[in-house]
Amino acid sequence: MEILVVCGAGASSTFVAQRARAALQRAGLPHTVRAAADSALSGDLDDVDLLLLGPQLAAFREQVQDRLDSYSMRIPLVTLPPDIFSDLDGSRTLALILESLPVDRNDPEETS
Q: Which DSSP string do the residues of 2-65 spell out, in sequence order?
């Protein structure tokens, strides 16, 4: 699974991505997390399974959702809460990720 964390310039999303990556690793989950600036939203998102939108971009959520809706595969969009930067161990971000990830219908553990 590819998780993209997007913020205005890519700096704060880097912190969130690093913490989420560490929390996923501690949980034994092999997902990839990468950070990007909002300019990445105009690029190719075919490899993205979940998009985490930085709180500073919350006002643009509808526009981002419209962009995601243009893809044949639905990409879940989560707007991160304003206090996400205080999530120093990534546990809250991990909880948001796990709540938002699409269920893989090909994974027998997910369907049982």
A: EEEEEESSSHHHHHHHHHHHHHHHHTT---EEEEEEGGGGGS--TT-SEEEEPGGGGGGHHHHH
Residues of the chain predicted below pLDDT 70: 71-73, 102-112
Q: Which residues pair with 1 in a beta bridge?
A: none
Residue-wise pLDDT tens digits, 37-64: 988 888 888 889 999 999 999 999 999 9
Task: Report the candidate in 72, 9, 68 with the shortest Cα–Cα distance to residue 43.
Answer: 68
Residues 99 and 45: their CA atoms lie apart, in Å, by: 21
* Amino acid identity, position 20: A
Q: CB within 8 A of 39, min separation 6: which ones?
A: none
- Dihedrals phi, psi of 49, to nearest 5 degrees: -105, -20
